[in-house]
Amino acid sequence: MDNEKLKGKILSEFDTIEFVEQGSQFLNVIVTPQQLKSLSLFLRNNPELKFDFLFCLTGVDWITHLMVVYHLTSTEFNHDIVLKVKLEDRGNPEIETVSDIWKTAEFHEREIFDLFGIKFINHPDLRRILLEDDWSGYPLRKDYRDEANIVEL
Amino acid sequence: MSIIEKSITDVIDSPDTVAETQEYFINMGPQHPSTHGVLRLLLTVDGEIIRKVEPHIGYIHRSIEKMCEKDSYQQIVHLTDRMDYLSCHINNEAVCLCVEAGLQLEIPERVKVIRTIVDELTRLSSHQLWWGVMGMDLGAITTFLYGFRDREMITDIFEETCGARLTMSYNVPGGLMFDIHPNFQRRTKEYITHFRKKLPEYDELLSTNIIFLERTQGVGYISREDVISYGVTGPTGRGSGFQCDVRKRHPYNVYDKVEFKEIIYDGGDSYARYRVRIDEMKESMNIIEQLIDNIPEGDYKSKTKAVIKLPAGEYYQRVETARGEFGVYIISDNKKSPYRVKFRSPGFSNLSALDTMARGCKIADLVAMMSTLDLVIPDIDR
User: Fold this and answer.
1) Cβ-Cβ contacts under 8 Å, B319 against chain A
2) Which 3 state secondary structure label does DSSP give B206?
3) Is the pLDDT of residue A17 over 80?
4) Would you tell me which residues 121-140 of chain A have a C-beta closer than 8 angstroms to some C-beta of chain B?
5) Is the peptide bond before A33 cis (omega within 30 degrees of 0)?
6) Closest by alpha carbon to A86, among A109, A119, A64?
């Protein structure tokens, strides 16, 4: 399915969804945290879409807000889509987990929690994964300062 | 039946005295020879049966993604071969392809062909090391020596071409660092002739060995659905029937112009994963043979500016490393360093499926299973 058809298909179910073109090769969708779960289930379960492979899941710190980016593809139809969720509350960013839909999200969400401090509600085992449990701060945030370990050039 | 035996059977069968077992924890690693690096597995075991595997990673986490936010695009290339050091050229190339797509650079045909050959040599050398180490994990030292002996020929070719034997860097945004060495074609052909004869011999050494078969066949099963859900790619995914070869799904370089088969096995067990890699080595040799005499003339690099600035936007490039789908996700804000870089490493996702594979198996089987996952720890920890 090409991007235009994908757009139409998604708009027929979720009419408030916002599409963005940002010089990216994929179709980008801005999703609210409330919509994420229902849209994810729709994308995976719809027989014409079947987005069954979450090939990249990561976070971005845009200073004004945090963002979680989901790269999805369908192993059967070979079409891709990118979901982007904005989280305005930097102090306590929270979002529903998708680890029950794509199991790979379990590890990737732990990584995002570790490096960006985004909490995933209903995640089965939300702990730091790469850093030690007593690490303070979230290194991939733009305002992270660590005098001891990072040499500023 | 003697009186003593009878009484023992009675005791065991009696419902009041069923032997109670207790689950306990065992730490495997971080310094364990079969984890191939600093990986710690916390095993929940009942007797010898594994109930749960909990990987603890991050012992060599260097936050390469954070480093990239300070570096120029040319420098980032050299950080990626510190991740999966056995797929170094392929990792380098992923960043180069991503930057080239952002700059909309035309790449000379010569570069594309050389890159493809180098990729396949890298894959061969990685699979050879895996084959040697896999045998060693199961107690056969011979394979380790054979694997390393023949791999040496590829390392020598690379040493001549790019000057290094480990953490090699040959690709730069726009093309290659230098042209191929005058000996490159001759020595590659010599290697292929040599290894064509050796590979069936090596395969026979393990796959006709009853001990090897009993320790791999039917062990560490994972279904196709689980493989896709866990994002397991590469030979591990293809051993469960998942058609995930990026070279076929999203061709780059000249992979759409050469003929090769995507190796798929449906077994889903350790043996299927073993077979995929062995057959893949044959396919890699096929690809090289098609290209080695047909390297087009031309430049080995197209012109790039000294300071590369990608137009603001997002770029994603996936390539097939020896371990699976490697992704580079660059967000640029039109500065000399990227705003954010994410490396989607195949090992990270592949490791997450280990728990599903290992449940119900014995501890000794876990070693074989991990071998067939072909984990490289810096690739996981980044």
Assistant:
1) none
2) helix
3) no
4) 129-132, 139-140
5) no
6) A64
Question: Distance between CA atoms of A37 and A17, rounded to whole angstroms?
Answer: 13
Strand-pair partners of B317 = B328
What ipTM does this complex have?
Answer: 0.88
Residues of chain B with Cβ-Cβ distance to A153 below 8 Å are 70
**Going by C-beta distance under 8 Å and a sequence separation of 6 or more, which residues neighbour residue B2?**
none
Pick from B104, B309, B344, B350 the residue to mutate for testing the A interface (most A CBs within 10 Å).
B344
| List of long-range contacts for A41-48, beta carbons under 8 Å, 24+ apart | A41/A101, A42/A10, A42/A13, A42/A14, A43/A10, A43/A72, A43/A81, A44/A101, A44/A102, A46/A9, A48/A1, A48/A9
The answer to whether the CB atoms of B311 and A23 lie below 8 A apart is: yes
Contact B61 A25 (CB under 8 A): no
B35-81 pLDDT per residue, tens: 677 888 899 988 888 888 999 988 888 888 888 888 888 889 988 88
pLDDT at residue B381 in the model: 87
Q: What is the pLDDT of residues B213-247, one digit of tens each?
A: 888 888 888 999 899 999 999 999 999 988 888 88
User: Whole-angstrom Cα distance, residue A98 to residue A54?
Assistant: 10
Residue type, position B374, single letter? D
**Chain B within 8 Å of A103 (Cβ-Cβ)?**
yes
Nearest to B57 among A58, A108, A129 (CB): A129
Q: At which residue do the structure tokens 């730069």 appear? A: B172
Residues whose CB is less than 8 angstroms from the CB of residue B332 and which lie 6 or more positions away in sequence, other chains included: B102, B309, B310, B311, B312, B313, B314, B315, B338, B339
Predicted confidence band of residue A152 (pLDDT cuts 50, 70, 90): low
Residue B53 token pair: 């595997």
* pLDDT of B4 over the 60 cut: no
Tell me, yes or no, if the pTM score tops 0.80. Answer: yes
What Cα–Cα distance (Å) separates residue B201 from each residue in A18, B216, B279? 58, 19, 13
Distance CA A103, CA B229 (A): 5
Interface A-B: count of C-beta contacts within 8 A: 86
Instruction: With a cut of 80, say whether residue B94 has pLDDT above it.
Output: yes
Q: What is the pLDDT of residue B18?
A: 58
Among the partner residues A23, A75, A115, nearest to B228 by beta-carbon distance: A75
Cα B161 to Cα B158, B170, B322, B374: the distances in Å are 5, 8, 20, 27
| CB pair distance less than 8 Å for A56 and B63 | no
Residue numbers in A near B63 (CB within 8 A): 115, 139-140
Q: Which residue has the tokens 């109670």?
A: B20
Q: Is A30 on the interface with B (CB under 8 A)?
A: no
Model confidence at B116, in pLDDT bands (50, 70, 90)?
Answer: very high
Residue B124 binned pLDDT confidence (cut-offs 50, 70, 90): very high
Arithmetic mean of pLDDT, A83-88:
89
Number of H helices, E strands in chain B: 16, 10
Alpha-carbon span B205 to A41, nearest angstrom: 48
